[in-house]
Amino acid sequence: MTETLSVVMERHIPHPPEKIWRALTQPHLIAEWLMETDFAASVGHRFDFRAEWGSVNCEVLEVEPHRSLSYTWGDSRLKSIVTWTLTPVGAGTTLRMEQTGFKPDQPRYFQGAQAGWPRFLDNLDRVLDNLD
């Protein structure tokens, strides 16, 4: 089995899991912090994320409302899985994002994820701050 690399981001967010869940699963909100999408929180749903540079193909693998969400993320060369985990902590939530499946011979994908996810999560913070 080929060893793979992962990108893991963890943040404490001063909002309840239910509010973060909305931003992770409602297409119009996802578009504000990540990319345009036809996402639906339904296991087996196939969707994509679209940006000016292209798109990634995805399929929902796991949905546990307000707790965890997992989907494939890839193209013809990349086969990865993104998993979101929401853990209530005090008045907020610890949000963990893990993207697994980067092969050692795919440094551009891995470096792109390392650079991209912090920006996406900063955008997510702004969306949540403005969400009622």
Structural class, by secondary structure, is alpha+beta
Number of DSSP E strands: 7
Number of helices: 3
Would you tell me the overall average pLDDT? Answer: 96
What percent of residues are in strands? 35-45%
Major pleated sheet? 7 strands, antiparallel
Secondary-structure element order, N to C: EHHEEEEEEH
> What portion of residues is helical?
25-40%
Characteristics:
single chain, 132 residues, alpha+beta, 7-stranded antiparallel beta sheet, 3 helices, 7 strands, 43% strand, globular
Question: Secondary-structure map with pairings?
Answer:
Elements: E1 5-13, H1 17-25, H2 27-33, E2 36-37, E3 46-51, E4 54-64, E5 68-74, E6 79-89, E7 92-102, H3 107-129
Antiparallel strand pairs: 1-7, 2-3, 3-4, 4-5, 5-6, 6-7
Helix pairs in contact: 1-2, 2-3
